[in-house]
Amino acid sequence: MSRIEHHPNQETLLSYAAGALPAGLALVVGCHLQYCPECRVSVNAGEVLGAGLMVALTPKALSARARTSVLEQLDTDLSEGKHAAKLSVAADKMNPSASNPEAIPRLLHRFLQEDNFDSLPWKRTIAPGLKQIILSCDEGDVRLLRIAAGKRMPVHSHRGSELTMILRGGYSDSVGKFNAGDVADLDASVEHQPVADSDEDCICLAGMDAPLAFRGWLARLIQPIVGM
Amino acid sequence: MAELAVEQARNGEFWADCVERIAQERDKHSFMQLFDYFSPRVNAYLLGQGAEAAMAEDLSQEALLALWNKAHLYSREKAAVSTWLFRVARNLWIDRLRKQRGVAYESDENLAETVDDEARLNADGERLKAVLDTLPQSQAQVVYKSYYEGKSHSEIAGETGMPLGSVKSSLRLAIKAFRQHFGEDGV
């Protein structure tokens, strides 16, 4: 990744730290954090704040049964499965390029299960020079966008919050020049017309705010209880 | 104030010592001290997020057990115990809400590499609450709804009737106030 010039807004990072960003936006922030020590510091500060606020809550004790049950579990060894999972993550971290030559962000890589952007099933869109892949995501809308080299996108604005991270190549718009690792944190007030760099296709990960229906959120809340 | 800070630092150190004793000696007494202090707070946090009582209790147990099982991964230079637990509780809860587990947050193992200078940030709850109490109502409300209820910017806008832009700017101002209060290296 080149030197990062554009970051998610501070309030976006705070909501990420609070666990309050819709999944689509949070995925983009999580990918950016891997490459951006500066934003990791901000998120960390937000987590310290969260911890302080958690500790300041009026305590609600667990049942005596829960306490006993936890005590009993202290003697049970970690399952083999957990050990194995931990090892594979550690290996992945130590040598990301081995299985991941294109440096696909770790979180996205886990999501895509694919090592190369070029072998993904890109779909044409109505905009000439723009292909995309829609990723299924619980909340919000996440897609990979591929703008052909040198192509100019139609002027557009966004309905709600949108986060876009450049993964390969770059583009320019009225806000500035965006390169790999950069994030554009846009809301409905920004109208723009990105133009992809002329030397290669620009691949971005774009997360959009969920059309947040509280009903949907509640439905997800009871999901685990009813065992879905 | 200085004396208070020392007292708080000792508390943070105390909990870090407990986790280290768990890592080195599998010390159950240290674990139960951590459990009795933190589990009611993790539980309160999860209930605030909207977890049913039974699930909040399950997840609180799971979060504290993670501390027992992963104590060897804990590094006091990188995180206060409370911060570590907050992350674990937050991630456990998000995983329950979302079908795709771990879509947006690194695993605890990768989190270890995140930052080196957290030790300088003071996570003391009472002081943070005090700052929160000095904020204008609209700012305190957006912080409260973000952290305690896990609401997104647009959800907060929808609930309060504030325009989305005002929700964002209120959060920005609140962050600024926290930063000023704790100095350059602070929250």
UniProtKB/TrEMBL annotation, chain A:
Residues 117-206 form the ChrR-like cupin domain. It comes from the Bacteria. NCBIfam families: anti_sig_ChrR. This is Putative transcriptional regulator. It comes from Zhongshania antarctica.
Automatic annotation (TrEMBL), chain B:
It comes from the Bacteria. Pfam families: Sigma70_r2 (PF04542), Sigma70_r4_2 (PF08281). InterPro entries: RNA_pol_sigma-70-like (IPR039425), RNA_pol_sigma-70_dom (IPR014284), RNA_pol_sigma70_r2 (IPR007627), RNA_pol_sigma70_r4_t2 (IPR013249), RNA_pol_sigma_r2 (IPR013325), RNA_pol_sigma_r3/r4-like (IPR013324), WH-like_DNA-bd_sf (IPR036388). Residues 34-101 form the RNA polymerase sigma-70 region domain. Keywords: Sigma factor, Transcription, Transcription regulation. Belongs to the sigma-70 factor family. ECF subfamily. This is RNA polymerase sigma-70 factor (ECF subfamily).
